[in-house]
Write a structure and sequence with these properties.
single chain; about 350 residues; alpha/beta; Rossmann fold; GMP Synthetase, Chain A, domain 3; three-stranded mixed sheet; 9 helices; about 30% helix; globular; ligase; ANL_N_sf
């Protein structure tokens, strides 16, 4: 479905009808909108956002990436959640031509690389992996863009390496429903790639006593949003994301940040060109309180790979961080926004 400035088409599917319904609400001047968090870090909850907040976020994105009236954007994230809704708001506020497709693992599959000149798009990591599995079709579309955003979940090292084949600038985003989408970005391909996030213009950041990030911005209506994300605050504009305070594993009195363990494992898998999904979590243990457990998707994990994981984790972090148990799961549960539903998976495999 193509939406051009000043022209709302007749929807042909139930999903298109939802997108058009929001556009009509926005164009009517509606002042408040109720959205829901994804539920990836807790129970999904409704959040009320004002038109002023959402417009401020859209204008900031347009300024950051040089978007201009008439530019073409692909909307392929779920419009039931903030990431998809904000793609619609950006299109309406910035005068962009929007192509709306129902979310799928490969949103470019039905698009013609010769006739789809997109300037801007946002994807989740799973979509990027799937598109890069078909480079002959996807790269001609991706490489024409001014900017590509990847958000909703962490960009692991395997995906980061695969993204080096994309010549258009690709950015990992940091944000949440409460901040009305992203408030910081980092380049993840090309010569400017970095592990450090940079806050967008006008966004103020700091940390609390736990070294957890807090944010104040026009998109938050200048309210301070306190997160549970542990960061290395480099200065008042830059930070390195370390993990979540509420995911720390306390194993025998030793505190382990699972994201650090995952990063070490991901580096090994990237060197071996293995793109299978995994995560690390703490599971209750009578003796240790919690034990480090490695959850693997699929069954094609050779023992040699698991032995190598044990060695690299022990060398890089220490023996206390080595997973004491491995759980193989045929398919990972996902949230509606495409994130791995860690809590559901751990609950299903105690």
């Amino acid at each position: 479905m193509r939406i051009a400035p000043g022209n709302l088409p007749i929807p042909q599917t139930e999903y298109e009808a939802k997108a058009i319904a929001f556009c009509r609400q926005w164009l009517s001047g509606q002042s408040m909108f109720t959205l829901h968090t994804s539920g990836s870090t807790g129970t999904p909850k409704p959040i009320n956002l004002s038109r002023r907040q959402m417009r401020a976020s859209a204008v900031l994105t347009g300024h950051t990436f040089g978007l201009a009236p008439g530019d073409h954007t692909l909307v392929c994230l779920n419009v039931d959640y903030i990431a998809g809704v904000m793609m619609l708001v950006r299109g309406l506020e910035l005068g962009l031509v929007m192509t709306v497709v129902e979310p799928s693992s490969n949103p470019l599959r039905t698009l013609n690389p010769e006739t789809e000149p997109f300037d801007f798009a946002a994807f989740v990591p799973l979509q990027m992996h799937t598109m890069l599995d078909h480079p002959g079709h996807s790269l001609p579309i991706l490489n024409r863009m001014k900017a590509i955003l990847v958000g909703g979940a962490a960009v692991d090292r395997t995906l980061a390496e695969r993204l080096q084949t994309v010549s258009a600038p690709v950015f990992s985003t940091y944000g949440m429903t409460e901040t009305v989408s992203h408030i910081a970005i980092r380049r993840i391909n090309g010569p400017g790639r970095t592990e450090v996030f940079q806050a967008l213009k006008g966004v103020e950041i700091g940390v609390d006593a736990r070294n957890c990030l807090f944010i104040t911005a026009a998109a938050s209506d200048f309210a301070t949003i306190q997160t549970n994300d542990v960061v290395d605050l480099i200065d008042s504009f830059h930070f390195r994301l370390l993990g979540r305070a509420d995911s720390i594993i306390n194993s025998g009195g030793v505190k382990i940040q699972p994201e650090r363990v995952e990063d070490v494992i991901a580096e090994l898998l990237a060197k071996e060109s293995i793109s299978a999904r995994f995560f690390v979590a703490g599971v209750p243990d009578e003796r240790l309180g919690q034990q480090v457990v490695l959850f693997l998707e699929g069954t094609e994990w050779p023992e040699s790979c698991l032995d190598a994981i044990e060695k690299v984790v022990k060398h890089a972090i220490g023996p206390y961080a080595v997973p004491r148990k491995t759980v193989r799961v045929p398919f990972f549960f996902e949230t509606p926004t495409g994130k791995i539903d860690r809590k559901a998976i751990v609950s299903a495999h105690p």
